[in-house]
Amino acid sequence: MDSNKIKKQKTKIIIIFLGALILLIAGITLSYFSSAQYVAQRVVKVMGKNMVELVNNGNQNTGLEENFKTTSSVKMNLQSEYFQALSTLSPDYQVLSNLLRNLSNTETQITMIQDQQQKKLLINYDTKLSGESLANIKYLVDNATEYYYIDGLTPNYINNGNNSYFESLNSTTTTKENTEYMIEKITQATANNMKKEYLSETYEKDCKKITITLTENDIVELSNNILEELKKDTKANQIMTGYDKEFSKAKVTKEDISGLGTITINIYIDKLIGQIKKYEITNNNDSIIFYEGETQVLEIWSDNKLVTKLNITQNNDKTNIKITNGTDTNIGDISINKTNTNYDIVAEITTEEFSANFGYNSQITNLKEGNSYDSNTRISLDITADNAVLFNGTIEITSTTTKDTTINEDVSNSVLASTVETAPSDLVTQKLLEIITRLTS
């Protein structure tokens, strides 16, 4: 036989063998990659990644993320012709009418100062009603000790013991990085504890369906397993303890979620290309279905009936959402535009019963990186029903942020929390009741 023919036959056999081997490996890989446990873990990790992107979305690097002083002014202009007209007929409407009127007569100043190097933090909430003090509340962290002050209820600062908020922040760690780290760790812990017992596989038409079923007992088990992983992770434990000194004791019980019922999550995967086509979350008789694609679709179902559908299209920094009802009738549109210094939302919803217009705009101006910047946020809402204005109004927040981190608070006369008869939470509740009484009078 010709040596060239022999070489060609050997080459052909090798190619066939390699092709079969590739197909075999691909088959094994696809089988593993589309397994219920792998898919569930992958979905959780993708959601975690999306959450990180959401946190970072549109953030402007101002150079004042960790060491800053922000002074904000909040002004409201709220009214309701409907409640005002009915206030003479019913005490309940009178209370609501008074609340809107009084909120419109409040002036609120919020000051927040953080000095990462000196490990100091101050939050001061000061609001006045028609020029008279309504509430003045302070929260201070100084020298790893936290203090609080409530005007009219505590004559001096109350020493509430140790605070480890700044233990998780150092010269190379920022609050944003800690947030990203926690999302990553929670995502990883969730994926790690996604037991096979929670999962099942079925086939529907051209899709493989992965089902995650979580009973109330499963939710308790999964939640506590996640918490245990976070407690064992040194950095995660530090971060969480900084926000809650009792984090080491955190535990989810059956009573915490009693009545929640069973949650079912279905993930539909195209059998041919292995892409996820849709997600479905069901609790009792209510469901949310999300379809992947160039135009994303979110459906809300109740009692096996389609209630609302959202068609979502994205183009760079602009997102448009078309809202329809269960009969596919258009009832509203939402547009979202964002840049590094501006975030804008406009929503218009109209049904047979009512119409609502919502606006949100937040922007950063006069940025001098590392030194100062101004910001302004405006929220507007207008709701009309039966040709009557139920509610309309605006909330405006104007802020100035600088690098001045000076805190001049005197805690020399502070008293230990253990010597105060009333618990901090009870004092806050008492103050809130006083505020509500004045606002509704």
Topology, element by element:
Blueprint: H1 3-33, H2 36-56, E1 68-79, H3 81-86, H4 91-104, E2 106-115, E3 120-129, E4 132-142, E5 145-150, E6 158-162, H5 175-192, E7 199-204, E8 207-214, H6 216-232, H7 234-243, E9 263-270, E10 276-283, E11 286-291, E12 296-302, E13 305-315, E14 318-325, E15 330-338, E16 342-350, E17 355-368, E18 372-385, E19 388-402, E20 415-416, H8 424-439
Parallel strand pairs: 6-20
Antiparallel strand pairs: 1-2, 1-19, 2-3, 3-4, 4-5, 5-6, 7-8, 8-9, 9-10, 10-11, 11-12, 12-13, 13-14, 14-15, 15-16, 16-17, 17-18, 18-19
Helix pairs in contact: 2-5, 5-6
Written overview of the protein:
The chain is an alpha+beta fold and 441 residues long. The chain has helices spanning 3-33, 36-56, 81-86, 91-104, 175-192, 216-232, 234-243, 424-439; strands spanning 68-79, 106-115, 120-129, 132-142, 145-150, 158-162, 199-204, 207-214, 263-270, 276-283, 286-291, 296-302, 305-315, 318-325, 330-338, 342-350, 355-368, 372-385, 388-402, 415-416. The protein has a 20-stranded mixed sheet. A hairpin with a 2-residue loop joins strand 4 (132-142) and strand 5 (145-150). Helix 2 (36-56) packs antiparallel against helix 5 (175-192) and helix 5 packs across helix 6. The chain starts with a helix and ends with a helix. The model is unreliable at 21-33 (pLDDT under 50).
Overall SS class: alpha+beta
Q: How much β-strand is present in the residues?
A: 35-45%
Number of helices: 8
Q: Could you give the distance between the termini?
A: 108 Å
Secondary-structure element order, as H and E?
HHEHHEEEEEHEEHHEEEEEEEEEEEEH
Share of residues in helices: 25-40%
Please identify the oligomeric state: single chain
Q: Radius of gyration in whole Å, from Cα? A: 28 Å
Q: Indicate the low-confidence ranges by residue numbers.
A: 21-33
